[in-house]
Amino acid sequence: MYRIQIQDFEGPLDLLLFFIRRDEIDVHDIPIAHIADEFLGYVRVMEQIDLDGVADFIYMAALLISIKVRMLLPRPEVDDEGEPLDPRRELVERLLEYMRYKEAAQGLAAYHEQRGDLFTRGAASAVHPDAAWEREPEEILNASLFNLIGALRRVLTEADADEPHHAVAAVEYDVATQRAFVLDRLGREGPLTFVALARHRHKGFVIATFLAVLELARQGAVHLARTPDASDFIVAPAEPPASAPGRVNGHVNGTTAS
Amino acid sequence: MSTPSDSNGAAQAEAQQERLEEVMRAVEALIFAADEPVTPAQLGAVWADVAGEAPLPDAQIETAVDRLNDRYATDGRAFRIHRWAGGYRMATTEEVAPYLKVLFQRDRRRRLSRSLLETLAILAYRQPATKPEVDFVRGVDSDYALRKLCEIGLADVVGRSEAVGRPLLFGTTPRVLDAFGLDALSDLPNLREVEGLLNEPAYDQERARLLMLNGLGDPGEGGADAGDPADPEDHA
Amino acid sequence: MSTPSDSNGAAQAEAQQERLEEVMRAVEALIFAADEPVTPAQLGAVWADVAGEAPLPDAQIETAVDRLNDRYATDGRAFRIHRWAGGYRMATTEEVAPYLKVLFQRDRRRRLSRSLLETLAILAYRQPATKPEVDFVRGVDSDYALRKLCEIGLADVVGRSEAVGRPLLFGTTPRVLDAFGLDALSDLPNLREVEGLLNEPAYDQERARLLMLNGLGDPGEGGADAGDPADPEDHA
User: Fold this and answer.
1) Of A20, A138, A156, A207, which residue has the fewest beta carbons closer than 10 angstroms?
2) pTM for this prediction
3) Chains touching chain C, criterion 3+ CB pairs below 8 Å
């Protein structure tokens, strides 16, 4: 199966850095309008599924918008000495500072990894307090959270187009029911893409299904993998039935996971 | 026949060698039995107490440890003595890690999440630091991360800032050194200068890697977006 | 010139020797790192898992352990592998026992038991406090803990309460600040901060309030509290 391991985003600064690197943007000349729009797109999806930490992203979105507005001012702002002020400057400094610590964190991770291979006496007793140490959910997810959000966004956008808002019926969907639904379909059909699972469904259905998939992935009941074109992700049962060896049922534009 | 002075010198050398052997035995036993790094001061004081001599100087302890490690290497021992957290600690070599991981089922042990590592990095380089400072650098609320770090003993409250509201100051604990295999925090590389980071080949590599993931942002039109980062509005 | 069968035999013997060395390394590492006796079955199973072979027979493990002990003796190592409780365990030799006794005696006082820490925490936040008050907050008799804290020099009698029977008042000594690396008692986290740091369901708010009657609840006024000798009953 095509799998790729990419890191989650730690917060709004991390997401901004991602955009900057992906688009080969000069940090000192960030196209704020463009970045702000893309950033907002993510925040809207995050709000809908009520992800933890969304407040930090909303704050950053507001900051981006205010910078965007300030850059549109007919007369540029000036500092005490009359020099023109770049409204982006403070944000850029924060981004650069964050980059330094992000790198330092990677360095620490390397030390930790190395040290983890060296066992001291009585190391066995450390097995129990281990519960206090973090279990990384990312280890289970082979796709990043933003990967998933990207897919969710796509389905939701489609759902919106299909279903005008005034027609939204008050049907409640809950995660437990959707868990059963996901497991049932995977059991019968084998690996499926998320879009195939949730296409043309009610928004509430899509979100509940998405959360159910996240939960199942965290528990190790399903594996997630990116599709090659990154526009969707594949949900596979942890132990795929022999009848569906690695075949993905769904509309993946002809791509098969192998 | 050896002259008296010859045999005298030989006897002296022998006595010295014997003493070094005894120091090595004591140092080895103490480091072996302790469940945390043992400082040179502790080792020297214990020696003084038992031998009824002055405390061993650090240099002699270092010599003994070096000799022990040489012997371990020659004799194929599965452990070495490391200098961690300002003291000495015995640990198995990397080569035998696979066996230990199986016995202790700790392949996935002690992974620290990125949020914990980031927070710890900020504390390690800037300590003492308040929660608002950490929050600002990370751009996210670090309440959980700080709490977790304190809980697992890698961070601690170290005082109060003089700033408005007198927020608590956090710092790293000596346990960090042991957990990361460092003798002192000053062994950490300096924070890199920003220009260095931007010109880093690894940065370009990551950029290339990220480019492959292009389109992630907006599946519908991502490709086009990414290729055209310039936006006329921004330059208005 | 060696005949083919000769060199064959030599190669075989060499391979066997190499295998034994690897078994020794694995066995040594596992026994070293475990904190309880490791059974031959465990050792054999780990080997099987890593080497992808059948589990090691007990006899081979015994051979490996015997060889290791022989080498330890020849090389002057300060420990041996013993067969205890149906498993193998590493322990220091009798010759080095005097060093270890001294180390552990010196070391013992450095760790505070849970009951001492609890009592110390109550004193730190609520001082001066009488023994009945400490007993009440902890829910157990704190006679031993208070005495011990005074003995170690972390607590001291600071006066007598005006209450019936004029019980002794206990407080912490400056050594506490030293031991916890704080500048002043007001640097201790206050109620709200403790709540934030702990954030666990087991956290008993009522108990916490009892503890912090002195008004440490507000960081803004924290400075005045710690040194405030006022009777806690005033605020009750």
Assistant:
1) A138
2) 0.69
3) A, B
